[in-house]
Every structure is written in structure tokens, then in C-alpha cells.
Amino acid sequence: MGMETVSTNRAHGGTQGVYRHDSTATGTPMTFSVFVPDHLEGAKLPVLWYLSGLTCTHANVTEKGEYRAACAEHGVIFIAPDTSPRGDDVPDDDAYDFGKGAGFYVDATQEPWSANFRMRSYIEDELPGLILREFPMADLGRQGITGHSMGGHGALTIGLRNPDRFRSVSAFAPIVAPSQCPWGEKALGGYLGDDRAAWRQHDAVALIEDGARLPELLVDQGEADAFLTEQLKPALLAAACREAGIDLTLRMQPGYDHSYYFISSFMADHVAWHAERLKR
Q1: DSSP notation for 31-58
Q2: Which of 21, 38, 202, 215 is at a distance of 20 to 30 A from 118, taking alpha carbons?
Q3: pTM for this structure?
Q4: Which residues are catalytic?
């Protein structure tokens, strides 16, 4: 299971690479990007994972996220996977919110999705193993995770399910309760079936209600986000964290929407926040 280098570029005192490999989890080639700051030989650097949102690939944040200067300053490796399996043989729904580009970071149990849509296994197990082999400077004992929208959902749920692995968890405009919004109901129902109890492992609010805990969370949310009321519902996360005693910093940002103009405006804050916790 080798790794192919697609491209490398110098940027902000580091190397931005794009890589491809054949995934056993998804049964398809998968592409991801890694930014590695310059470092002393033999040094180990903490890792920040970024999970992207609906319709995105690794390229959206790689090209528009504006994280490299902050990662170079703080000595943090930044990894951006794809959002779903891809290829002519991969089933699709011809909709932006289900199928290709919309893996929702779950392992599908329903046909025809179950053969390829295994993004939970890919993100939690396979890709970290590849990073460990191919990037010896990556310290997987110090990991943080963040993401946007559907990727914010992924970051929150993966972080909540793996509190011993991730020292820090944040999100930009996350889908906090997919069991209670149209995007999530379509995706979880389609990938996992009608048993809503099976959805709870993929719903941040439900996970917290069921006992999952993290010491703290950072969430930025634009007040001008067109999806705020119907799909994102950050107040549900705030209520769940308050009830559970989780220290949530929820920053409602006036005038900001759902786009990478919003994400890039606060990316450096998130990188610094993670770096402080990853260096402890």
C-alpha cells in the first residue's frame, strides 16, 4: 500500500504536498494533502487534522484555508483528507449532500454504499497508519482535529469517540446534531438505515448526551451563515455541553457566512489554539 506524490510546493517555510494511495477501507484511490513545516532533523511535530465539508475535496482548504503561515509559526503538521471515495465504479446519488463528496465520516452499512463509503475507518484507522509510515516527523501522540460543516461534524464526533487520541478538538460551522437536521437525516438514514439508535455514534449532541466527554471545545460560527438555523443549530451543542460540563467556547461571528472567507479569517486562531494544547 504505497503512497504516490502528486505535487510538492514550498510555502511559508515548509512543504505543501499532495499525495495519493490505494485505500483498502474505501476500495478506491484516495488523495490527501499534508503541510510539513521546516524542522530540525529528527524532530517530532504535532499533527492537526482538518476534515472538509459537503462537495469538497482536500483541495478546498489546501488552496483557500490560509493555514500554512500559522502552522509554520507553531510547528504543526496539517493534514487534509478527501471527503469521500471517488471513481467511476463508486455509487453516487447525483446530489451535493449525499454520495460522492458527502461521505459524512461514517462507515455505511446499507447497499450500495457499504462497499466504498467507509470514511470512519479511513480517517480513524487507515490514513493515520499511512501517515505514521510515510511521515516520520509526525508525532501521532499529539493530535488535534478540526473541520468545517460536514467536516466539523466529523471532527466533533471522531474527537468525542476518541478522547484519548485527540488532545484538542475544534470546528468551523459544524453540523452538531445531524439526527435533527435535513442534511444529517438524509445522510445517516441513507448510509446507516432507519434505526436511529445507530445514528447516535455519529451525532455530537447525542454522543454527549450518551456520556462522551472532552475537556473543552472551540467552535466558530458565522451569524450570516445561510445554513445556521435549519442545518447547523449550534445552540443544541451549547446546551449539551452546558449540561455535561464541557467547556465550550462558541464564538458567533457577526457578518460571516459559511464560505472559506469565513474559515480563513479564523484559521490562524484555531491553529494557535490547537498548538497550545498539543505542546503541553
Answers
A1: EEEEEEE---TT--EEEEEEE--TT--H
A2: 215
A3: 0.97
A4: 149, 225, 258
- pLDDT values of the chain reduced to their tens digit, one per residue, 280 residues: 589 999 999 999 999 999 999 999 999 999 999 999 999 999 999 999 999 999 999 999 999 999 999 999 999 999 999 999 999 999 999 999 999 999 999 999 999 999 999 999 999 999 999 999 999 999 999 999 999 999 999 999 999 999 999 999 999 999 999 999 999 999 999 999 999 999 999 999 999 999 999 999 999 999 999 999 999 999 999 999 999 999 999 999 999 999 999 999 999 999 999 999 999 7
Q: What is the DSSP string of 212-234?
A: ---SEEEEEEETT-TTIIIII-H
